[in-house]
Amino acid sequence: MTAESFSEHRKVLLGVAYRILGSVTDAEDVVQEAWLRWSQLPEGHADDERAYLVRVATNLAIDRLRHVKTRRESYVGPWLPELVSTPDVAEEAELADTVELALLVVLETLSPLERAVFVLREAFGYSHAEIGAVLGRDEAAVRQLAKRARDHVRDRRPRYDVDRGERRAITERFVSAAAGGDLDGLTALLARDVTLVGDGGGKAKAPRNILAGAANVARFLVAIASERGVSRFLGDAEVELAVEIASVNGGPAVVVHADGRVAAVFSLVVADGLVQTVYVVANPEKMSHL
C-alpha cells in the first residue's frame, strides 16, 4: 500500500485518535502504528481503505487509552487534555465543537470503549452498524454503549448558551480585568461557584488542587496577572511576555507567550453570561501543537 493513499486518510485518523485519547502525541503514535500496518498490506487487500484504517486506528487508540489511564492516575495535580490550535472558520465549526477542552475533560470519565463509540457516532457521524464493524461488536451492543455515553456526556457537559463572538468578548473582558488588577470587575465576570483547574504536570507552576468560589479564583488570577505574579508563575523573572486571544480546541482562549514560546493557556467555560470554569494548562509538554 502506498504512502499517497494513506496520506488521504491521515487527517481523519488523527482526528479520531486525538478525540479518543485527548493527546496529540499519543494520537500521532497511533497513526504511525496504523501506517506501519498499512504499509505491510499487499496491494488491493482492503476494499474500503478508509474503513480499514479507521478500524485499525480506533482499536489502537482504545488499547493505548487503557494503558495511559493507569499512567494518568499518578499524574501530579489535575490532568487536562493536550491542546491544539483550531481554525476559527464556519466550515470547521461542527468538528471544532468535538475538541472543546470542556468536552474532552468529560470524555475522560467514559470507559475507553464508550469514548470510542461516542467519538465515532457524535463527531464523525458513523452509524451504529458501522461502529459495530469497527469494534467487532453487534449493533445492539453498540446502541447501548452509545446511549450510555451520550447520557453521561449530556449530564456532565458544560452548557454553552453564547456564540463564539460573545465568548470572545467575555474572554477579552476577563483578560482586561485580570491584567488591570480589577478584582471587583473580574469577580463580576465569574459565577459564584466558579472553579479553576490547573495542569502543570509537576513541570510548571499551577494549582495542584482545584480552586473554587469567585473570590478565591479572582484573587488567584489577579495575583498571577501582575508582572511579579507572572514571573513567579512562570519561574523566570527575566522573561519577555506577550498575551493573545487565539482559537484553541474550538474556542477562544488566552495564550501567554514567554520569550516566544507558549507558556500557559487559559480556557473559559461560559454560560449564563458568566465564567463557570477556568482551565489553566501550563505543562510545557502540552504546548508543542499550538
Can you describe this structure?
This protein is of the alpha+beta class. It contains 13 helices and six strands. It has helices at residues 3-7, 10-21, 24-39, 49-72, 93-97, 101-107, 112-123, 128-135, 139-156, 164-179, 183-189, 214-225, 227-234, and strands at 190-199, 211-212, 241-248, 251-258, 261-271, 274-281. It has a six-stranded mixed beta sheet with strand order 2-1-6-5-4-3. Strand 5 (261-271) and strand 6 (274-281) form a beta hairpin. Residues 89-94 have low confidence and may be disordered.
Strand order of the largest sheet: 2-1-6-5-4-3
Order of helices and strands: HHHHHHHHHHHEEHHEEEE
Extended strand count = 6
Number of helices: 13
Short note summarizing the structure:
This protein has 13 helices and six strands.
Chain-wise SSE layout:
Blueprint: H1 3-7, H2 10-21, H3 24-39, H4 49-72, H5 93-97, H6 101-107, H7 112-123, H8 128-135, H9 139-156, H10 164-179, H11 183-189, E1 190-199, E2 211-212, H12 214-225, H13 227-234, E3 241-248, E4 251-258, E5 261-271, E6 274-281
Parallel strand pairs: 1-6
Antiparallel strand pairs: 1-2, 3-4, 4-5, 5-6
Features:
6 strands, about 290 residues, alpha+beta, single chain, six-stranded mixed β-sheet
